Structure formats: structure tokens, C-alpha cells
Amino acid sequence: MSEVVPLPAPPAARSLWQDARLRLLRNRAAVASLVVLALMTLACIFGPWFTGHPYDRVYQDYVRVPASLSAYPKAEALPAAIQRIALRIRATPSEVVVDAAEVRLVLTAQRPIDQRLLVYFDRSDQFGTPRITASEQEGRRLALAVPIKRQHFLFGTDSNGRDLLTRTLVAGRVSLAIGLLATGVALVIGVAYGATAGYLGGRIDMVMMRIVDVLYSLPFIFFVILLVVFFGRNFILMFLAVGAIEWLDMARIVRGQTLSIKRQEYVLAAEALGVSIGGILTRHVIPNTLGPVIVYVTLLVPKVILLESFLSFLGLGVQEPMTSWGVLISDGARAIQATPWMLAFPAAFLVTTLFALNFLGDGLRDALDPRDR
């Protein structure tokens, strides 16, 4: 008798989501964008803890200093700073020697120098507490050793003397949070509203979509201004205002998908088995609309960030000392000729985030398209 050769096991079938994940991983631009977004989010969340500067700390001696990899103060700026402090003490500086860690100098005056006035060195952002090394001529001549406070401003400082790197990262927290939260509000309202309207159909669908048309006719800026007038400017208001408008497009997209899904055999079978409307929506309709919805969400997040930046540019966004990328770009645009770094760095973060989100959206659209399987 001939030996029976077992047939090889059939390959395991892949679901639509598994196939979409594999095709998304093969899209280099989408994967690179996902990595960039992850790094940007981590930098905005944890970065301000390592910059060494509070986001609202004002350095009066470092107003509008340019970006630099080396520490401030610069050696050439120290004599002028010492001269300003000496004028407050009513003394004349001389024999100024600048070392890496301290400045040695001599203060002379016509009367005995009040040593309490040396606190002006300590109040400065450039120097620490001075140490008197010698006192001559009955206190009219003091030899001082003044430590230097070294500060790093990798992105420079703004018009108020605040570290721009810290403020850019904190602004990223606000902009990304508003983008995600407002998109979440639009996702929940839009999916529930659109699926209900599309599945119920008839007069209910007509009434619900006419409400959407009425809301479309309301000017968005006018709506936001009314909210600001009545409730003031705050973080919660921003994402509620944006999310309460952006769900309209989501509702139309989900309604269109629901109109085709509700005629499918598995939905008709569920109706014949007596499944409730809520059960059909949550188990059959909404899960099958998530493909286009996920793609639209990735495109909605940059749109919301741009809306928040636009509102902040107009002065309707977050309040000082909190900031967002739109606020920083607005401040930088007003001082672009004198301080171009105030515009360049926040704009670079915003543009990079928007490009990454759009590339990721394109990759998800290609990966979730069943016609490309």
C-alpha cells in the first residue's frame, strides 16, 4: 500500500485589521511619522523637567537673547553688567578680571560703600552672592569675588526674558492636548450622531441632518467669541469649542457609511433575530465605520491644532503665562525682524507635527482601503 502523505496546513487567514497593520508597517513615511510624533510627544511631556528653567520664569538680564549652544552670560557682556550694578551701588569698578567661574573686581567710592548694597549682584540673573576679599581706605575700596551664574538658552529667550525652549515644549503640551481632546469630543459626538441618523433614516434622519446644516451656517469665530465673552479664556473652553464644531463633518461621514452598512446581510440577520437598535449600532454598524473614521481622525487632529493656533494668534486662545504654539508664533511674528528665532523654533515644531500627522493619515488611508488588499 502507498504511504499517505499529509497535506500541508493551510495558511492562517489574516483579518482586515491585521492586513492593514502589515501594510502600514511597510509604509516608511507613515512609520517615520509615527516615530516623530512619539518623540515629539515625549519631548513635550518630559522635556520641560530637564531644561532647567520654569516656563514662566522671567530673566530680566536675558531679554531677547539669541539661541546659543554655549552658556550665558558671554564674557564680553560681563563688564557692562558690572558697570550697571556698580552705578546702583554708587561706586566705580576697576581691575575687572573674568575667570570661568567668577569675576574679580575692585569697587571704589568717595564715601564708605554700604555693603548691604552688594545684594544687587545677588539679585542679578548673571551673578551670585559676592564675597569681599579685601576692604581698604575705611570701606571706600572693596575687593570682590563674584560668582557667575551660568545659564543655557538653546532656543534663546522671548520678549519677557523667558526660556523659549521650555515654553515651546510646554506649548506643545497644550496644542497636542487640545488637538487630541477636541478630536475625541468630535469623534464621540459625530460617530454616535451620524450612526443614529443613518440607521434610523426617514424623517428622523432628515430632522437630524437639518440640525447639522443649521449648525454649519453659524460662523465658527462668532461662536468662539461668544463663549469667550461669557465664560472667559481657558483650556477647557478651547477644546470644547473646537470639538463642538468639528463633529459635524464626522457625523456626515459616519451617516454615509451607515446608510450602506445597514443594508448588509449581517445587519438584516441581527434585525431578524430581534437585536435592539442600540445593540446593532454598537456591535455591527459603528465597528464597521471605524476604517474611514480613523483616517479622518488623523486628518482632524492637525486641523484642530491649526484652529487653536489661529485662535491663539487672534488673542482668543490660552492665557498667559500658559502658552501654545499659536501664541508663540503670534509673538514671534510681531518681532520677526529683531528676533527671528522667536518665530522659527515654535513654527518648526508646529510644521513638523502637522507634516507627520498628514503622512500618518495618508498611510492609514492606504492601509485601510479594502480595494488595495
From TrEMBL:
Q: Which InterPro entries match?
A: BP-dependent_transpt_permease (IPR050366), MetI-like (IPR000515), MetI-like_sf (IPR035906), OppC_N (IPR025966)
Its chief place of residence is membrane
Parts of the chain that traverse the membrane = 29-50, 174-195, 207-229, 235-254, 266-287, 293-318, 339-360
- Domain ABC transmembrane type-1: from-to ranges: 172-361
Query: How does it sit in the bilayer?
Result: Multi-pass membrane protein
Q: Which PROSITE patterns match?
A: ABC_TM1
Kindly indicate whether the keyword NADP belongs to this entry: no
Query: What is this protein identified as?
Result: Oligopeptide transport system permease protein OppC
